[in-house]
Design a protein that fits this description.
Mean pLDDT of chain A: 95
Radius of gyration of chain A: 19 Å
Oligomer: homotetramer
Shape of chain A: globular
Order of helices and strands of chain A: EHEHEEEHEHHHEEEHHEEEHEE
Largest interface: A-B, 45 and 45 residues
Number of strands of chain A: 14
Strand order of the largest sheet of chain A: 1-4-2-3
Helix content of chain A: 25-40%
Structural class of chain A: alpha+beta
Chain lengths: 355, 355, 355, 355
């Protein structure tokens, strides 16, 4: 196993020419798995069909390049602010020279889930089990896991007909679907007590959270799909993650990237000028009262969806820290961070010890 | 002259209760002038009537508090991102104890302007002359001016009927109105060559810019209205301003606030923890090709108005720098900064030398 | 009692100059009550402050005209399509010559309601009792009532804390607030069985509906406010109402206006060319599956709020029928019409028998 | 030549399953040409990628069905109001039994056009010449033409660099592109004087208009593409078109459908109950002052694009007339109808004489 990380830009949701060039440049014979994690531009409304267009383009690029290895794709809508549309392609190949030293990747998918299995104990449990299989697939121990990406089915109103009152209340709520999966990840990682990570906690117990989860939900899948990234061996860590306190916690973000050094922002500056960073992933949350450090914002009280405010703000902060706009930023950090906080994960090109 | 600076929060465009409390706490008999510069929340669409509601509420608060001194009001729409709706009230009074040492304020308005006088040489010239009168009113020299706020009339399509082709092309364009006023400010401040600051430069010569201008335009006024802030005497400067290179130029912004020190971000941190900052004003621009440091963004290619992206991003960056969301951030920096850059101005509670 | 009906146009939510001219032209000494029912333009988003501006302007116009009689105001947001912003002013005066023969108006308000009294049996009961008082106030019998306008409090999430699960589920839902009030009206008018018009029916029993209700909800009131219009005596009816089957039920709408004649559309044409119509009110609903006569629409599956689609469509249909855009059209007909249908009410200047 | 007309519904822009079923049911060997004219749902913003998805799906359906004959596709974005997403497929085949008696169709495309050839005399002339070729292709005389559909290139700001001031002013304006093509159609049909149909008239002379044009513009093509529909022979006319005065001109629309009969609305009712109508196309305009029959609307003064208001209103009116929502409605009738008016065209299944 040798995991290489590539960044590709997109001029629109249907443009995977840069991804195709990357795929064509590698020896597909040696490839055993591919993960693609990308941001798609568009209005992110119920009638935004950019995601479908992007998914077709990605599948077409994989086909044109002759990639027959299994590929998992996570697409997140919305490039508000200064997010550059594009994504990351992680390739697992037998070509050891291509990959980043020590970077481990694992994948797994649950069986197809019925509506009755969603946003409840079964959803949590299915996620837990799938994460454990993905960690095993990565060939690392639980404490070597840096970040777990999860895509979860969404229970729609139509699917919820006849289900429990609890499930009906959680229908059409991405937040509930993400919450269930996040609790399952926390369970698998030993971060949340098994007695507490249950259906009753969904949407209700913000104090329960994983420290290494990024969860997405959508109607395009009927299974929990997991991608695990972690660090193999005892060398410098190629992938790091951590939690920040709120969207303007610049020092917290800098310490996740640079480690617990005296001048973390300065250290990040030195890293970026050395082109040390291969990929950046962020999950952003916001305090449910709409306040930031005690003062009112309009994040939950405007014509814009809260996620649009959050993605734009996050893009500015992380962009200012890294001096770069090529990033993956997504909103909704239920049970993935303390209330109002979020998750940041970074992959390094040439990892060095820096703790 | 003694200028005091107050911050007030608003729970909605019609809520000036906090402003009223401030006004009631001062001895209005001693007040000679008031300036109010505020952000109003709302969709910032053509049918956003929050500005009218806010203007009524501000005028009502001034009336209720018995303020009879002249008052100039600048309202900017849009609190996207984490901008806390609210504003600053600057009060010029004979009560020397109330004010910030060394802070100077001047005001002036042009005569009413006819449509024929807009977005052309006359517009530039009227602004220049009004700025000069405001500087004189402030009792400072040109090189003591820190920032010039200007509100300019907007030439609408209806007003442009029968005017020159150039004016018709510039009709309904806030950017053109701001450009004309900014050129006039640059002229008054000796920053732009008088031969170049002419109608032909409007929208065309981004290399011509003032270094200390923040310009707004709207149909609610038929005159150029100017507020000048500056530093009197030779003591530490209570108001500082400067240009930053782009919206993620965190170090540039930090140096404007903290001066040219070794670790400007760290210096800003120390200032904010000492509650040193009384007011923050930002004018944000974006490169017209929609790129940030070479990479594509969707700022000019999405369902959101470009200003919404810009305000949200700027609020994140300045919020992360200062650890605070109570700020004035507005978009549109035509001839107020180099292409893609912007202006930042800060008033300090207890100014110290820090250059 | 003599009820005069005036139409006024608005150039923006803050413009009540036309209303003021009407009020100034009447002898306010003779006025005992005023009802104002108007459409306010604006984005109809959570941060649309046009309603507050319009309410201020209406109250200011009443004050400037010296109207001291009680005034009830119903403002509905959104003039999508071809709805002309503006409204109707109904004036009850002792000046018999001013009014429309036989037109009756009654008003009543409930006591202030606590959150615990909302979207449940108490809400229904309070509405029933208030409607009965308003009918009594109008001095007519139940079967003489043509239309009941109701403004109801809205239970917000914040208000619902600690209340029943049922109430929490109905919190922030205008539809639930409207449903409760509509059931109460149906009860008062003897249209809905007292055993069925209970909390359990709210949002659940579309087959229960009043035939003469138009209900609005908002956070600006804590009481149920009722305006009843009806026909006094045995002469021709000055106000008529009825239900139509769906938004394109042109013949159904025509029959409500013209009566059960052979060529209802032709009859409406003759009425409008004689300037016979004084006021038009419509409440529009849409089938919850988003289908119209068996075919899919995007009313519930687009970037636009469903109400925006509905108001625009309704404005086209009623505009085409009447050849006029000065109308009151509002969305949300829960328990006010069969599923997918709506209510239309018309006041005539010179009523004639036409049944 | 025998032209068959099929209607297909779409559950989303990427769903052409109904179109595929139609194509699979015909003998593709006999097909010589295909025209597809469809409405695509979506926000119709600059970042609405539904059109690209729909175009892919249509091309894929044609491919899957083995259609190798030339196919022209016109996609119009936006299904506001009650427009059912879907379209019409017109198939020209040698299978005479399949087609509608007397219906003629012609197609032609210009050579690729350079930016210098757009929104000026050359644009008008290229359209005229292409329309003439399409009429010839249809095998009918000019006075047998019922409607000319045109898709025109759009001159973007980027393309206009270095071109004439006139072209730069018209850059990025769909209305100018549509205007140029409409003038060319009017010229080809002998409806506009050759001396008047010139560049100077574009956007300036609303009194010049074709009576049988429906024009669309977009960046997806660099040529003028024409589809002509008309009536062959002297039998009853299978396709009729006409102009209506404004969006609520119900009688005018009815007369276009039913002919100049005593009770046109009643006549339309009888036609629709007999399933007589195969296809409905509408181009809707609005008076540039935003007024409808003397009263103000918010069509040009709201958060919604004017076209969204117009499409929704038009869908209501035509839906009410026909009792059906399966229609093609598009906005922008520059030089295609008098100011404020529009074009309606209808294809009948079993044409009868009705003039």
């Amino acid at each position: 196993m040798s995991i290489a990380v590539f960044r590709f830009e997109m001029s629109g949701p249907g443009d995977c020419s840069a991804l195709l060039r990357i795929l064509k440049a590698i020896d597909v014979e040696t490839v055993s798995r591919v993960a693609i994690i990308a941001k798609t531009e568009g209005p992110a409304t119920v009638n935004d069909f950019g995601r479908a267009l992007a998914m077709q383009a990605i599948r077409a690029a994989l086909g044109q390049a002759g990639v027959t290895a299994p590929a998992q794709v996570i697409l997140s809508m919305g490039c508000e602010g200064i997010i550059s549309p594009g994504g990351y392609c992680l390739v697992d190949s037998r070509d050891a020279a291509a990959g980043i030293d020590g970077l481990a990747m694992g994948m797994a998918s649950s069986e197809p889930m019925t509506p009755a299995d969603l946003v409840n104990d079964q959803h949590i449990e299915a996620t837990r089990a799938t994460v454990e299989r993905a960690i095993e697939d990565a060939g690392i121990a639980v404490d070597q896991v840096a970040v777990v990406f999860a895509k979860s089915p969404l229970l729609t109103h139509a699917m919820a007909v006849g289900l429990s009152a609890e499930q009906q209340r959680r229908a059409n709520r991405s937040s509930s679907a993400r919450a269930a999966a996040a609790l399952g990840i926390g369970l698998a990682l030993g971060e949340i007590d098994a007695n507490l990570a249950c259906s009753a906690a969904i949407d209700e117990s913000p104090a329960l959270y994983s420290h290494r989860a990024m969860v997405f939900s959508g109607t395009e899948t009927d299974r929990v799909e997991i991608i695990v990234l972690g660090n193999r061996g005892s060398g410098p860590k190629p992938v790091r993650s951590g939690l920040f306190a709120d969207l303007i916690d610049l020092d917290g973000m800098a310490r996740i990237v640079a480690g617990n050094v005296t001048d973390p922002i300065g250290a990040v500056r030195r890293m970026t000028s050395n082109d040390a960073i291969a990929a950046v992933f962020m999950k952003a949350g916001f305090a449910s009262d709409g306040k930031m450090r005690g003062n009112r914002t309009t994040v939950f009280a405007s014509d814009l969806e809260p996620d649009k405010h959050m993605r734009a703000v996050a893009s500015g902060v992380i962009g200012a820290l890294l001096g770069d706009t090529r990033m993956f930023v997504s909103g909704g950090a239920e049970h993935q961070a303390p209330a109002g906080g979020g998750v940041l994960a970074v992959i390094f090109n040439n990892p060095v010890h820096h703790d």
